[in-house]
Amino acid sequence: MEEEKKSVGLWGDAWRRLRKNPVAMAGLVIVALMTLMAVLAPVIAPHNPNHQYMNRGLTSMGAPVGPSSFFLLGTDQNGRDLLSRMIWGARISLTLGVVINSLNAVIGIFLGVISGYFGKFVDTLVMRLTDIVLAFPFLLLMIALLAVLSPGMESIIIGFVLVGWAQYARLVRGQVLSVKEMEYVQAARALGVSTPRIIFQHILPNVIAPIIALFALGVSWAIMGEATVSFLGLGIQAPTASWGTMIETGASWITSAPWLVIYPGILLLITVLGFNLLGDGLRDALDPHLRR
Amino acid sequence: MKKLGTKKSAVAGVLAASLLIVSVLSGCGQTTAPQAQQQSASSSATPQMGGVLRTWKQYDPKSLDPTDCGDTDSYDIQQNIYDGLVMWDKSGKEIVPDLATALPTITNGGKTYTFQLRQGVTFQNGDPFTAADVVYSFNREASKSIASPGESYFSMIKGMDDVFAGKAATVSGVVEKGKYTVEFDLTQPTRTFLDVLAMPYAFIVDKKYTSALPNQGDLSLHPIGTGPFMFKEWKKGQVIKLVRNPHYFLKDAQGRQLPYMDGITWTLGYGNSVAYLKFKDKKQDFSLIPTSDYVSTLNDPNMKNDITSLVENDYFYIGGNIKKAPWNNKLVRQAMEYAIDKDALVKLYNKRIVPAWSILPPNMPGYQENPSGYKYDPAKAKELLKQAGYPNGLPGVHPMVYVKNDIRDVLAANIQAQLAAVGIKISLDGVPFPKYLDVVTKGQEDMVYGGWMQDYPDPDDFLNILFNSNQIPSNNNVGYSNPAVDKQLNQLASVTDLQKAIPGYQAVEKQILDDAAIVPLYHDKEAYLIQPWVHNSQLHPVYPYFYYWTMWIDQKAEQAATKG
């Protein structure tokens, strides 16, 4: 009985604590809604996000039209429905966030584990590499990279993974360093359990919790980063709707048609906030030291 | 007009792609041009000396070396630093002497031009200007190692092409006949020869200074000429500064030394929207009007007086690279002719452009509204694609290169959607102007959305330069080649009376469009802003910019306005 409660306990307890944290739950709700919006984009978007309404969607002098019952949030500079583009843009943002962080997590965990577990030369090598990556000005790297590769989704993923794994590696290494000195690991080693098995069965499951928190924060980092890079014109390419691109192309209209910037900006803000709140909440919930 | 009554071939080109302005011109005889309606320039006031014009460019110019002056941005700056033997007058109707004392004497049945040069003119470093500099400059333009994209404009000069091809050491057709006398020998009479001499490629550089440069590319960074303003600095992506040349050889009608202004400063590196805000804030004397602010500017009681608008002799187009599949298939190209609703572009551009169904712009001699009778018909476009063997549309995604700015992005996105609707998928490759020039003048693009602004008011400048196969790829960017068209263009260039050549040009234009070499999109009617304290800000009639050396600034008015 006692034993069972403990083993289920890590996750069950974390969920219990997360639920008690209203701020984190707000983050979770936002994330869930955004995910739902991204998944259901074809169903809920009122218009084709790429259709240019040359008559209805533009004034006679070619300016975007403001919110109306037909275009709930108005149109953009090409006469496209802004709301529909924002909804479809969620797909890009979330897909990038998840793909980038999954790759980062895989690379980071692998390097972090071998660095932490084997120590010595391997550790020095991996950690110095991590230092270099973390010290490099991210935006500069992205600009240089996208100048070489052509801008687009693949290039963004490559760039974000080039730097993003380092956070994971450093975090995992720290965890592994402490876990590998635990008695159960020492015991496994004494019993002659193979190294891969020790790593996968005994160490990894015990370092996974903080990675989940980092993942949530990483998604918000990637979404913001995509918007930044797209804002510089180096990211997602037309006509695909992405929040960053929408804000970039709408920027010059800020005085005459402010909705072009304001609505995608607010959506970006809420989404990033949601992932940050959830990430912080998870970090607290999964931290054994904060367990009450 | 008349003086051009010379002869033959010639070509010339200034890649227009860039922004603004320009009024129109005339061609031998006819003409034109809606001069800018300048509310701001009161001609009655007496010009004042001093002041610095604070103007702007989105991108760095490609070069400050005349041998690489094929674009409007480079031209705008270089025209202040250098002079040619001749230039266009302010009306844009006549070629007048510049470094020459008079128009040349023409002998030998129109094949020999003899110029007398001004004496006492010095370069900005003090070196005296002589006939040797003229000979040197043309040899430099012809040089194989420099590989000027403008060399072919001077093919009518004897020996020019031989030097360019490495077959001769010096240009036999440019001869120093005395310290201040130069003779040009042409292979055949050429109607547009003086037009071409007024082009920036024919600017004169200092032989002593330039030949001593360790690297010929250095001239672009440290240019020296005889022009009204001297180069001071160029911080890439930030600023270009020119200052008054106190020894400039021209004076105004009242005998005052030109230029009036102390200098010109172009700030670089930001787009229309920022330029517009700086103009509004009175921190900049010139700006274009972003699409987003056009309507509000027209309705602004203060700013509407600062607007000048004019019709430009230019045209914008899209085209696939005919050297590559699938654009080598005429049916595919014809499908594109029917695929674009040009009225949509006009609307997106605040109705500041007119739809184009022709290559020659409305104020160009020989203009025809729609020689090939195309119209917007997406069903027909699909049908033609089907006939071409693409019933499901073209395979792949074709990148379209263009000069990135606020309005082109919007128009390109619309073109993208329109082409997609008939089954042609493109991606948008908006790049800075110098990068664009690098790609298209080497014929490396898949698709291009570009523009051409006239060099001189003669259909030769659009049809011969852009579609003669001898201009591939430097100006004939799409790689159009039709031997019958080449033959006709070459022959038309030697017709000395433009009026007689016009029916021929019209037939050629129709043929080029029947072949669907490019899809014409629109001609510009540009509008821009100039501060009220800047006077004489009339545009260069042939090229798209100001006659900076006769502009002047009412400094009291400027100070009062900027303080307030």
Explain what the structure shows.
Chain A: Belongs to the binding-protein-dependent transport system permease family. Chain A: Keywords: Cell membrane, Membrane, Transmembrane, Transmembrane helix, Transport. Chain A: InterPro entries: BP-dependent_transpt_permease, MetI-like, MetI-like_sf, OppC_N. Chain A: This is Dipeptide transport system permease protein DppC. Chain A: One of its GO terms (cellular component) is plasma membrane. Chain B: Belongs to the bacterial solute-binding protein 5 family. The complex is a heterodimer of chains A (292) and B (564). Chain A is mainly α and 292 residues long. Chain A has 11 helices and no strands. Chain A has helices at residues 2-19, 22-39, 41-44, 82-118, 120-135, 138-148, 153-179, 183-190, 195-231, 243-250, 259-286. Chain A is elongated. In chain A, 42% of the residues are buried. Residues 1-6 of chain A have low confidence and may be disordered. Chain B is an alpha+beta fold and 564 residues long. Chain B has 16 helices and 21 strands. Chain B has helices at residues 72-81, 131-142, 160-164, 193-197, 207-211, 272-280, 294-299, 330-339, 342-348, 378-387, 406-422, 433-440, 459-467, 483-493, 498-514, 555-563, and strands at 14-15, 52-57, 86-88, 95-97, 105-107, 112-116, 174-178, 181-185, 229-235, 239-244, 263-268, 286-288, 307-311, 314-320, 353-355, 398-403, 426-431, 447-453, 519-530, 534-535, 552-553. In chain B, the strands form 5 sheets. In chain B, strands 1, 12, 13, 14, 15, 16, 17, 18 and 19 form a 9-stranded mixed sheet that branches. The longest helix of chain B is centred in the last third of the chain and has 17 residues, at 406-422. Chain B is globular and about 70 Å long. The model of chain B is unreliable at 1-43 (pLDDT under 50). Chain A binds chain B through residues 50-52, 54, 58-63, 77-78, 150, 233, 237-239, 249, 251-253, 255-257, and chain B through 271-273, 290-296, 341, 344, 347-351, 404, 406, 409-410, 412-414, 416-417, 427-430.
